Amino acid sequence: MRKKRILADVLSYSFLTLLAVVWLLPFFWLIMQSFRKEPGQFIDTFLPKNYTFDNYIRLFTETNVINFSRMFMNTFVIAVFTCILSTFFVLGVSYCTSRLHFKMRRPYMNMALVLNLFPGFMSMIAVYFILKALGLTEGAMIPVALVIVFSAGAGTQFYVMKGYMDTIPKALDEAASLDGCTRWQIFTKITLPLSKPMIIYQIVTSFMVPWIDFIFARIIVRAESKYYTVAIGLWSMLEKEYVWDWYTRFCAGAVLVSIPVAILFMITQKYYREAMAGGVKG
Amino acid sequence: MISLSKLRGRSFKDPYNLINALSSGDIWVYLSCLFMGAGNIASGQIIKGLLFFFLEVAFLVFMAVPGGGLYRISMLPSLGDRPQGEVWNEELGIYEYTKGDNSQLILLYGIATILICVLFAVVWRAAVCSSYKARVQRSAGLRPASFGSDLHSLLDDRVHTLLMTPPFAFLLVFTILPLIYMMTMAFTNFSREGDRLVLFDWVGFRNFLTVFNSNSVVGKQFWSVLGWTLVWAFFATFLNFFLGTLLAMLINRHSIKLKGLWRTVLATTIAVPQFVSLMVVRSMLQPQGILNRMLEGADLINSPLPFLTDTAWARVLVIIVNLWIGIPYTILQVTGVLNNIPKEQYNAAKVDGCTPIQTFFHVTLPYMMFVLTPYLITQFTGNINNFNIIYLLTRGEPVSVGNTAGDTDLLITWLYKLSVDQQKYDLAAVIGILTFAVLSIVALVTYRNSGSYKNEEGFR
What we know:
Chain A is mainly alpha-helical. Chain A contains 13 helices and no strands. Chain B contains 21 helices and 2 strands. Classes of the chains: A mainly alpha, B mainly alpha.
């Protein structure tokens, strides 16, 4: 019996190690490529023959074709505003659907469910035409258009937050109400502070959206390279006319974007677990 | 619980509704139907009444001005038919262009105008009810609420109006309006084909007939894309779930140390943006990619393997690569549930002499399926819409000559290609509507047949 158990342990550990290698190998390869000296997309050996740090330096110094640092700033600014707007939307809708009773509550929630069934970019061309009619697809208005696109759907993404707010005891609201608090005060002074882990989860999640979206952004920004976000920039490095020169720099850029996004993701998971495990005790 | 919800239902019944207003309102209420806010002003709510009145004036002006709302709606049936003209200007010696109609804008503005009319109808109803309420309070000797207290109630009783209006406005303009707009395109011939990008017409259900007709080129592609989409969604969802559950159980074994580390390592594929990880895998799987080079270098193969260039290879590969992305999601979701399975069930299985495999199929899996049905449904619908993995990994390729859809294209990536790359908006819109139909049917049918819907208390 004991021998059998040891054998099972050895097997499990070797299997898990094998999986871990398979899981990490592409990322390891990517990091190695970002230090490769030879240009071009395809090479014969798994590891580069010569290493260099140039790819990272040139990514930020050679700005005449693809200006990576500007893309980084663009994305950062867009992400900050997206984050503020969509967090505000989600918190407002979650509070109302969780705590208040009004006529449109059920209809609104059902509408959100139906809207969520529509694939987001089924209508993206129509969204583009609307933004164009509003004059938001030219020049300096493009970042505004992107913020709108990234946060417009927030009104339907409230189910997780609402679920969390549902766990906050109603007795707290009633007590505050007896003490003369208005609903607004209950919202800002009781519900929001108690939802802290979930709010952090929400903030980080919505902050990440502009960094990883390449579909909507590409349709709205089109060829205006001044307003590229990092995702479109990295994507364009792989186009036929650039790929020979830019492939290793694509790898460097991909590493630079992935690290913060991965760290942020781990943070969301921490707060998500905290929120799910803790709740608020009545 | 039932009585509670009934109570709540009753509390919404507002005595100041439109029917009561029209049946028992006084002359001011009827006047308010024509001149919004009249009843409010007569009852002392000056500011509120004026606001209503100005809204009405603004709406009427918007509708009546040349090129305004009425014109917009009147253009809807024809969608415009004046082409852009060229006039030779003798004096300057150049061609001057006269402005033609743009069907796409006519359609958009027409729909937007209809939405504005609907919104105005809501405001109108609110105005009539509000003046009715003010009149009733007045005649009962009460003072109707002042504008200040109305504003204050936005922070208290009606805080939902304050908090929900901005998100809803955004939804209305950037989600609902585009959806309606997109759906109407399905009934037109808005397409690059036949040069109908500027001027197009209504064609009724013709596009739907084309797509459903399995003898037409598009029809053939539709059925094969739909079939592959469902096959893909099935395998992507259930293989992920099955293998992910097994893996989660393996990590959950008592003797495995560093559980957190294993889970974190696997979660890297979720943490790294998909456009990075999938592009890397794509370049590794190319004919000259590193995987083929390594295999050739080791003399295992003579010519590159057709990872993404052969239909069967590509289809199997997207499902396998999807495991790489999807299994960690399952582990995140499943680990908590696994710990919740009642220990007695395992003990009972042991007493009955079940093998571990039997225990898995008769205790663990049914429990998981029961608890996670909603999750599985979301996964299934999510996979039908899984744009990223297909578009980033294969771009829908390989594409047979003459087809608009590749062999690994899902409905959603086909839709993307039809609208963004090929500008066949009419067909794209039909595909969009049909995708939604497939999704809602899947969601409804599976949800209604699931254990957790039929019997909410079942497993407790």
